[in-house]
Specification:
InterPro entries: AhpD-like. The protein is an all-alpha fold. It has helices at residues 13-27, 32-37, 41-57, 63-77, 80-92, 97-102, 116-129, 137-171.
Length: 195
């Protein structure tokens, strides 16, 4: 249970209930971050629009690189909800779940089971998700050569957005909801229980 209550259907308003119904059709149930964000209607809608536009616009990179970067970021920040949801999306796309789960391991950026592009993306997600940020000129130049300007900007944006999602969920105590078969992925720091 999150640190603040989820907004139930009956209190979500007409448009909120429509948004909830859409989320249920798409994901099987209402994502809990969605129901927490409904406490602030303006941010709820701005987030929903931003997420939809980002999903439609982020098509420069291969899906596996996008999803690995976002998943790695979620594991580094420690958002079990994001890990759970990300794994579900990866599996729905027909990708190898074990490959994704290996991205949660501490040594993933050096794991030879990942190709060169994947290792570079995983290391960049780590560098962007730490505090302080540890991105180097060499990393940016390498990724720019591999992915092009648009690919580098897309990767950077997606990692930044996932940092926002994951940190918000972790702060509000939103935990794995059970979207994926395996919600507990090795290497994910658990979110502290609400007080």
């Amino acid at each position: 249970m999150s640190r603040i209550p989820l907004v139930p259907d009956r209190d979500a308003g007409v448009l909120g209930r429509l948004a909830y119904a859409y989320a249920r059709r798409r994901f099987g149930e209402v994502p809990e971050p969605f129901a927490v964000l409904r406490h602030h209607p303006g941010l709820f809608w701005s987030s929903a629009v931003a997420e939809s536009l980002t999903e439609k616009a982020a098509t420069t990179l291969p899906a596996r690189l996008r999803d690995l970067a976002v998943y790695r970021t979620a594991t580094r920040v420690g958002c079990s909800w994001c890990v759970d949801f990300g794994e579900m999306l990866w599996i729905r796309a027909g990708l190898d779940a074990d490959h994704l789960r290996r991205a949660a391991a501490d040594g993933a950026p050096d794991d030879r089971g990942f190709d060169d592009d994947e290792r570079a993306v995983l290391a960049y997600a780590d560098a962007m998700s730490g505090s302080p940020i540890a991105v180097t000129d060499a990393q940016v130049a390498d990724l720019d050569a591999r992915l092009g300007h648009a690919g580098l900007v897309e990767l950077t944006h997606l990692i930044g957005v996932e940092n926002q999602r994951a940190r918000t969920n972790a702060a509000l105590g939103v935990r794995a909801q059970g979207f994926a078969a395996s919600c507990e992925v090795p290497g994910v720091r658990s979110v502290a229980s609400p007080g």
